[in-house]
Structures are given as structure tokens and as C-alpha cells.
Specification:
- Helix 2 runs antiparallel to helix 5.
- The two termini are 21 Å apart.
- The protein folds into three domains: 72 residues, Uridine Diphospho-n-acetylenolpyruvylglucosamine Reductase, domain 2, CATH 3.30.43.10; 123 residues, Uridine Diphospho-n-acetylenolpyruvylglucosamine Reductase, domain 3; 82 residues, Uridine Diphospho-n-acetylenolpyruvylglucosamine Reductase, domain 1, CATH 3.90.78.
- Helix content is 26%, strand content 26%.
- The longest helix is centred in the C-terminal third of the chain and has 19 residues.
- Strand 16 and strand 17 form a beta hairpin.
- The strands form six sheets. Strands 6-7-13-11-12 form a five-stranded antiparallel β-sheet. Strands 1-2-5-3 form a four-stranded mixed β-sheet, with no helix packed on it.
- It is an alpha+beta fold.
- The structure holds flavin-adenine dinucleotide.
Length: 311
Amino acid sequence: MSSILEKLPEVRGKYTENASLGEKGWFRCGGKAEVLFKPADVGDLQHFLKNCPSDVPVQVFGALSNSIIRDGGLKGVTIRLNRSFADIKADGETVTAGALALDANVARMAAEAGIGGLEFLSGIPGTIGGALKMNAGCYGTEINDVLVEATLLDRQGNRLTVTPADLDMTYRHTNIGDDMIVVSATFKGTSEDARIVKARIEEIKTRREESQPIREKTGGSTFANPSATEIAQAGLPEGTKVWQLIDSVGGRGLTIGGAQMSEKHCNFMINTGDATAADLEALGEEIRARVLEKHGIALRWEIRRIGEANE
Ligand SMILES: Cc1cc2nc3c(=O)[nH]c(=O)nc-3n(C[C@H](O)[C@H](O)[C@H](O)COP(=O)(O)OP(=O)(O)OC[C@H]3O[C@@H](n4cnc5c(N)ncnc54)[C@H](O)[C@@H]3O)c2cc1C
């Protein structure tokens, strides 16, 4: 049987066939990558993209804290960046971070440099690449509010510098295509006393521990909050949140196989031990069907689901 590897260019980094993927993510379940590629550095990644046949699907992940990899795995090449993409540098009121830098580390470095305004990142357990793609945010601030510019590679390996205006950033949404790769991003905060910024990070930590099942195998918020228009059209009180809709259809604690909607925060889905990706997706779809039937609202998945289902 011919291997997809035969089609791929020679690289300085490493290809691994049939590599564990879903199991490395926050949900600790799901399928494998047909080929996993760890580029040696950005030049190697560009060389790969320029020379990889266009019919080979290419995708990239960060910490897999917002993704379900379906049980049948991912076709094509899945890119995992290496440590050369994790640098963080503070300069004046700006911080520039590689795509693999953890959001929490960016928040911490900013605090140490006396830069305020980026502490919301400490509440998001992913990487800068994932945060950009998802326009991640919490406690009233999102990436869009602090992003100055980002460097991306397109599928052909061309380097693009973009600003928030180019990315159509709205609530948990950007126009970054699934085959685009974030390389780095620059954020702007404001000069502040480092002790005050660090104290705010501690507050976020406490708030999260109290309200979210952060020690579980989870993917954060399963669904995005519906828009104000959708809430109004459904005749619900202004400001109704998605967790209230889930609660209203008996979703809290609802279980399918090893997947459960958390008792602590019912918009968080958890793998209680032996969930498959199919269990997680089926549970989410059950919630969507119930909310659609009761309120006429089609919930939008915030968690990315990708790959092939098992037959
Ligand atoms: C306990 C918990 C709490 C959470 N709380 C929040 C919260 O408060 N707010 C919030 O917004 N999110 C939250 N999340 C969700 C998640 O952490 C964010 O969406 C995060 O930004 C995802 O980053 P990641 O690196 O894990 O992305 P992944 O799950 O690896 O990928 C997510 C998407 O981003 C793409 N992507 C990843 N890296 C790159 C890159 N370098 N270039 C291009 N595309 C890329 C992937 O292809 C995929 O489409 C939470 C998750 C958990 C588990």
C-alpha cells in the first residue's frame, strides 16, 4: 500500500505516521493523525507548505483545548509546532509571542514586564495560535481587543502580516482558514504596576477554579452564547446565556456513554473516563436538538470537531 509520505517533501523536521492526536488533547480521546509533522522551524514549515501537493489536506493544532478529533482520525498532514514557535518578548507596552506560546505564559510575562490588559489570557488554557483562530476571550476581553498584528503562513507558504481589521474578528470567530497557520502575534496592553497585574491574574485563577471544571478532561465552553437577536426572537429575557438554555432542557449532568455535560458548569462537556469522540459529539448534538425544539435556537458549536467518524 502506498504511503502519503511518498508525496511529501523532504524536511528538516520530523514526520510520524499514524500518530496519536486526540489522546494528546484536553479530552484525552479521539483519533490519530495520518501523518504528524513537526517542523524544525518556520523556514522548514514554509518549505513544506511550498512543496506539499495541494491535494494533501493540511491542518495545525495548538494545545487541543478546544478540539474534538473524531475517532477515525485526521487525513493528510497535521502540524504540531515545536518550541521554536513558543518565544515571548515584551517591549514597551507590547508583547510578541510565537503561536505555540501558552496564553497563560503570555499573561505572566506581560505582568512581569508591567503590562496590563493581557491578564484575561491567563484564563484560557490554549496557545496563541488557537486563541487567534478562535478570537478567544474571557471576563469581558477578547483577542480582538488587544491584537496589533499577526504573522500567518498561507497554504502555499507565503508569509502574511495581518491586523485585526483583516481577520473579521467577532465573538469566537475569525476568517482564518483551516489551512492557514498562525506563526506569531503582537499584542498591546498598558503600562501598569506589575503587582496589580499579577493580583488580577490571581483573581482570574480563583474565579475559574470556583466556576469551571478545569481539572477535568474538557474542551471549555461547548457552545457559543446565542446572539441578542436570537435570544429576543426566542422570547427569552435579554442576556440569557447558553448555560441557561442547556439547563432548561435538562442538560446539566446529561450523559451519553462516557461523555457528560458538567454538573459544575453545564456548558462544559467532560470525558468521565472512557468517552469516545463519538460520545462527545452525540451528547452535544442531543443538547442542540433539545434547545432547538424548546427555544427554536440552533446552538453554534464553539468546540472544533474535525476528522473522520469511525464506521
Ligand atoms: C478548562 C478550559 C477552559 C477554557 N476557557 C476558555 C475561555 O474562557 N475562553 C475561551 O475563549 N476559550 C476557552 N477555552 C477553549 C480553548 O482553550 C480556546 O479556544 C483556545 O484558544 C484554544 O487554543 P488551542 O491552542 O488549544 O487550540 P486547539 O484546540 O489546538 O485548536 C483550536 C482551533 O485553532 C486552530 N489553531 C490552533 N493553532 C493554530 C495555529 N498556530 N494557526 C492556525 N490555527 C491554529 C486549530 O486548527 C483549531 O481550528 C477553554 C478550554 C478549556 C479546556
